[in-house]
Write a structure and sequence with these properties.
Elements (H helix, E strand, L loop, with lengths): L1 E6 L4 E9 L3 E11 L1 H5 L6 H20 L6 E7 L3 H18 L3 E5 H10 L7 E3 L9 E6 L4 E8 L2 E7 L5 H11 L6 H11 L24 H13 L2 H5 L1 H29 L4 E5 L6 H14 L2 E3 L3 H4 L3 H13 L20
Parallel strand pairs: 1-4, 4-5, 7-10, 10-11
Antiparallel strand pairs: 1-2, 2-3, 3-6, 7-8, 8-9
Helix pairs in contact: 2-3, 4-12, 5-6, 5-7, 5-9, 6-9, 9-10
The protein binds 5'-O-[(R)-(carboxyoxy)(hydroxy)phosphoryl]adenosine and zinc ion (ZN).
Zinc ion (ZN) binds next to helix 4.
Length: 348
């Protein structure tokens, strides 16, 4: 069966077509219209502006993703995310489901990130449709612009949040500190690129690693932006505008965030004796993060599953996949079902 996934929870308009089979599901198309250029002017995502862009882009990405095919069901993100953006996608999906007279499947955006990572088969454009017993329990680290969560997966569909951020998300920490340094939105890729260029250690910058030694698996990143601002303000204008200051600061920001993510994730991996670790969400597109987690997972004999970058950031294929998994369990609604946006939806 063919399932069309639609994603509009934040600033990307995504539509993708997935062919769901017995053991695998293949991505037939995956179209994402990015709004980065628009939001760059404002240094962040403006919900009403994002909603208008979704309205404009949805018919285009829908047509492009579908091509000549007719879908058998539509999966749509209903939360968590920005309320006006979620509603825009839901309304569109409902209209199309009625026009085509096909079922609707409401999907949790975070389950999309989790499954796109956990079920990625290692082959291009291919997901598995279940997870074998030997790979469980699994642990998912979900790191995006709005969320930082550690999810224990006992089986498909049975999730428990065992740790999460108490304030800012990891992606938000990248975005906010980048802004202090005068780097454009989104800050994650910008900080990563500057960090890569860093060759020296002239400024000896030291940022805190919040909650590194607490016994729980929670995170806190809001102190980081304060610390960056404090250091930044203590420098002369010449210093802080120099290429090497920005590079060294970017490197320290990335390291501080990764140190905390690594420590808490592997502490949780020990505690729950997990077999598989998977990382999803936009921040997991970070090369340094991938390299560090891969090395540590190998050392500990834990299987690491990370999808290609375009499946880590927001996209429609992950929504189609999570929708297909629900479909297999018989969890779908009729074409005229009313779906409500749930901006604060949780994965439990
Ligand atoms: O999952 P996502 O695409 O959208 C949300 O659901 O939030 O994640 C976006 C976040 C942004 O904060 C962005 O700065 C961050 O992911 N990000 C990165 C990288 N690429 C995107 N953070 C660090 N390194 C990257 N390479
Ligand atoms: Zn996301």
């Amino acid at each position: 069966m063919k399932i069309l996934g639609i994603e509009t929870s934040c600033d990307d308009t995504g539509a993708a077509l997935l062919e769901g089979g017995r053991n695998t599901a293949q991505i037939l198309s995956n179209v994402v219209a990015s709004q980065i250029e628009i939001h760059q002017k404002y240094g962040g995502v403006y919900p009403t502006l994002a909603k208008r862009e979704h309205q404009k882009n949805l018919p285009l990405v829908f047509t492009q993703a579908l091509g000549e095919s007719k879908p058998d069901a539509i999966a749509i993100t209903y939360g968590p995310g920005l309320s006006p953006c979620l509603w825009q996608g839901i309304t569109f999906a409902q209209e199309k489901a009625q026009e085509l007279n096909i079922p609707l499947i409401p999907v949790n955006h975070m389950e999309g990130h989790l499954l796109a990572a956990l079920l990625f088969s290692g082959k291009d454009q291919e997901f598995e449709t279940d997870i074998s017993h030997e790979l469980l329990p699994a642990l998912g680290l979900l790191v995006s612009g709005g969320h930082t969560e550690l999810i224990l997966v006992e089986k498909l569909g049975a999730y428990k949040i065992i740790g999460e951020t108490r304030d800012d998300a990891a992606g938000e920490a990248f975005d906010k500190t980048a802004r202090i340094l005068g780097l454009p939105y989104p800050g994650g890729p910008e900080i990563a690129a500057k960090a890569k260029e860093s060759k020296q250690n002239t400024f000896d910058i030291r940022l805190p690693r919040p909650m590194l030694h607490t016994k729980d698996f929670d995170f806190s990143f809001s102190g980081l932006k304060t610390a960056v601002l404090y250091d930044y303000n203590s420098r002369t204008p010449e210093e802080r505008e120099s290429a090497s200051y920005i590079q060294e600061m970017a490197k320290e920001i990335q390291e501080a965030i990764l140190d905390v993510l690594m420590k808490k994730t592997f502490a949780a991996a020990d505690e729950y004796a997990i077999k598989t670790l998977t990382i999803g969400g936009g921040v997991s597109a970070n090369d340094e993060l991938r390299a560090r987690f891969l090395k540590e997972a190998e050392n500990r004999g834990i299987i690491l599953r990370v999808p290609p970058k375009h499946l880590s950031t927001d996209n429609g294929a992950m929504i189609a996949l999570a929708g297909y998994i629900k479909w297999l369990r018989g969890e779908y609604l009729s074409s005229d079902a009313r779906i409500e946006a749930e901006p604060n939806l949780r994965l439990e």
